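Q: Got a minute? One more chain.
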Amino acid sequence: MSLGANISTWFWGTAGLHEGQEPFLQWIMAVGNTSDAPSVFSVSYGDDEDSLSTSYMERINQEFMKLGARGISVLFASGDDGTGCNGKTFVPSFPASSPYVTAVGGTGFEGIIGNAEVGNYISGGGFSNVFSQPDYQQGAVQKFFSSATHLPDSKYFNKSGRGYPDISALSNGFLVVCNLIPLPVAGTSCAAPTVSGIIALVNDHLLQAGKPVLGFLNPFLYQQASALTDITDGCNSGCLETGFCSQSGWDPVTGNGVPNFPALVQAALKHSH
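A: Always. Here it is, folded:
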């Protein structure tokens, strides 16, 4: 499901639970068995990594890889609990921590006037305790660690794990109209469909130019990070203290930054084969 001007939007629902958690495998297999599935999916659900078996998550990852090979972009909200915490370590969120999806973090505007966009303290982000760091982000993550002026105690996180989020968008100040009544909402559940709608519009430009859609986004987002607006302030919450903080370049609060639509379109047109 994705939201964008003049972009057809589907709502895809999957009933039931898997061992008390979200039925991600049932859903993703249904998508894989659908020949005319949408080219962009936005998902605002997640489970703690440590609540799922590694074999189950790896099986889901196989389906994510299949969708990427088909040219389907899958974006997940990174979560609203900052780094997550079980009292001893940070608790990453899955599927946002999967190397085969695009995790979307959250930003907000600083102060009442809202002059500066900063990382939102709720923005889910950190490093997977299960999945290793993929090649496409190793350079960006190494740069983060080499230049970070604030880092949580290393006992809390797995420095060699897959870092997330990959990208961000505004995560507060949204209005949802329900029964004609506008209701304020917030969270990365707002950010993920926002980015997904933008990606769908970028795909529209690609299709009009006779080029294929973006598909699996992450290599493109890291190679073309200059097509995003970098967010350099704001920290997410951690274990009884600050978690990670935004800085120049990729960081585990806002990823590579927020979309700059004209720049993304130009980068996609040049990048696409």
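A: Helices lie at 24-32, 54-69, 135-147, 188-208, 218-223, 261-271.
Q: Perfect, thanks.
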